[in-house]
Amino acid sequence: MKNTRKSVEERQLNILKAVNQRGEIKVEDLVELYGISAMTVRRDLQYLEDRQMLFRTHGGAMSLERSRYTKLMTPEIAVYRDKISRYASNLLEDGDTIFINASKTALGILKFVNDKHITAITNNGWVFEEQYPDNVSIHITGGQVRGKAMVGDYVMRNLLDMSVDKTFVGCAAVYDNGEFRYDIPTEIGINEAMISRTKQSFYILADHTKLMHGSERSSLYGSFIYEQPVTLITDDMSDPEILERLRGLGMEVIVVK
After folding, report:
1. Residue 139 forms beta bridges with which residues?
2. How many Å apart are CA 25 and CA 73, to the nearest integer?
3. pLDDT, the chain, mean
4. Does one domain contain both 215 and 92?
5. Is the residue at 68 inside a domain?
6. Cys-Cys link to 108, which of 3, 59, 74, 85 (CB 3.0-4.6 A)?
7. Residues 74 and 63 sit within 8 Å (Cβ to Cβ)
8. Same domain membership, residue 31 and residue 86
9. At a CB cut-off of 8 Å and minimum separation 6, what does 127 contact?
């Protein structure tokens, strides 16, 4: 049966919704999700990209919001993220036990601990791709693997049986209304579990490409406002207007130069 214009539009809107909800998605996932051919998915993705509604990637697509900072991941941005990681490492004290979530910037802290003895508990799959000094003891939460994150009830149960001194997490976006966005929404519960078992301070690490106005938000999916006090660590390329609004909400903001 030939597709009607209405059915094609509905299908394309569903695809766009899935892309915006997940941030990034593969063609095969859309094929499975909607029971359509890979050729149809690729054609619809091209149609949506031509109208500047999403950004095509190799093998799939990502939301405009996600692509805003993903495309900006240049060597220069890597320098800013390293500066943030290095600053955060200076907040550690010898003997600290910390939580680190699935963020590469948060995990980067461990590169700069020098001779401090640190115990890091993490659900971050990137940890297997780096070498760390003997004075850094890394404990993996286990759990279901989603990309480079370990998620699920198993992670939650393990976290709630532990306690740490400090917690360091990254996020996909920080909005000027105090919302934080995560590409894997189940990370919200994991981060909350980490915070609930933190005795001292909770830090969110985000470079300037992740700080956004609320008007740039394409979806509420994965957005969350923390009830606990939050300290945001960012770099000096961040939009001053956004920083001022976040401070006005009572958030402590540290700008790394």
Report:
1. 121
2. 19
3. 89
4. yes
5. no
6. 85
7. no
8. no
9. 107, 138, 140
Tens of pLDDT along 23-56? 889 999 999 999 999 999 999 999 998 887 888 8
What is the rounded distance in angstroms from the CA atom of residue 63 to the CA atom of residue 25? 9
Total domains, the chain = 2
Which residue reads 């091209």 in tokens?
46
Question: What DSSP letter does each residue of 173-238 carry, written as one string?
Answer: EEETTS-EE-SSTHHHHHHHHHHHTEEEEEEEE--GGGEE-GGG----TTEE--SS--EEEEETTS
Q: CB under 8 Å to 110, separation ≥6 — which residues? A: 89, 100, 118, 120, 130, 132, 136, 138
Distance CA 94, CA 163 (A): 17
- Could you tell me if 187 and 219 lie in one domain? yes
Residue 69, domain member (yes or no): no
Same domain for 241 and 114: yes
Angle at which helices 38-50 and 27-34 cross, to 10° = 110
> Cα–chain-centroid distance for residue 250?
22
Do residue 80 and residue 112 come from a single domain?
Answer: yes
Q: Please, are residues 148 and 184 in contact by the beta-carbon 8 Å criterion? A: no
57 with 102, same domain?
A: no
Asked whether residue 58 is assigned to any structural domain, the reply reads yes
Tell me the pLDDT tens digit for each residue of 178-192. 999 886 777 889 999
Residue 231 within a domain: yes
CATH of the domain at 48: 1.10.10.10
Q: Which two tokens stand for residue 217?
A: 């938000």
How does DSSP assign 95-110, residue by residue? T-EEEE-S-HHHHGGG
Backbone φ and ψ of 6, nearest 5°: -65, -45
Domain of 231, in residue numbers: 75-256
pTM of this prediction? 0.74
48/108 same-domain check: no
